Request: fold
Amino acid sequence: MNRRAAFARTALGLAATLALTASAARADGPWSGTVTAATDYVFRGVSQTYGGAALQAGASYQHDAGWFGGAWASNVDPFPGGSGSVELDLYAGYVRTFAGDWSARASYTRYQYVWDPRPRPYDYGEFAVTVSFRDLVAATVSYEPDTTRYATPGYARGRASTAYELSARWPLRHGLALTASGGYYDLERVYGTHYLAGSAGLHYEWRRLALELTRFYADGAVRRLYEDASADGRWVLSASYRF
Reply:
């Protein structure tokens, strides 16, 4: 079995484990989970799979007092044509509602790369604060104290970066909704630059199933940094099942 086939089996096993965990705990109420298949995995204007398909799964726990935690995983392909790995995100935080329709959320996420063939470490952490109005508009500020990346300028580790993001959802009829997002990503202390990226899409939900078609945008700095991994102009189709 070649490395890609072995990795695909590993990613599938990890996704199934997370999904089964969430499904088994569903009766307890606070637990939830999702399994997603997508034609690409795009994060902040950059394809994490170099345009390849992604299998993703997550499980989370939400306490009545506002505390939450969970895990999310996806296959990633750091180098096209090479051996892939699994991104495993572990997160925890607190959410509180106020003034009826508003909520504030604070969280910490640890991004880890499992079975990563790259000789250098790429794990990093992120603190984030989000303020949202219902499920219609959300604004997020994120801070990474130890940003770790590889781009055209080279390998960077342990440098701070900041992200400012805005997302919106406009419900239509029959389970349809329009979605949009945009972000400003400050990498001045990492690579001496910054960039803009965003998306627009159509979301459809029926019972526990969700389908989404999204068009991504990214400015020229993304291509200068990440070359063919830039998601500018890419269309992504995804299907998710919620437990």
Observations:
- The chain is about 15% helix and 60% strand.
- Residues 3-24 form the longest helix (22 residues).
- Residues 106 and 129 are 5 Å apart (CA to CA).
- The helical segments are 3-24, 188-191, 220-226.
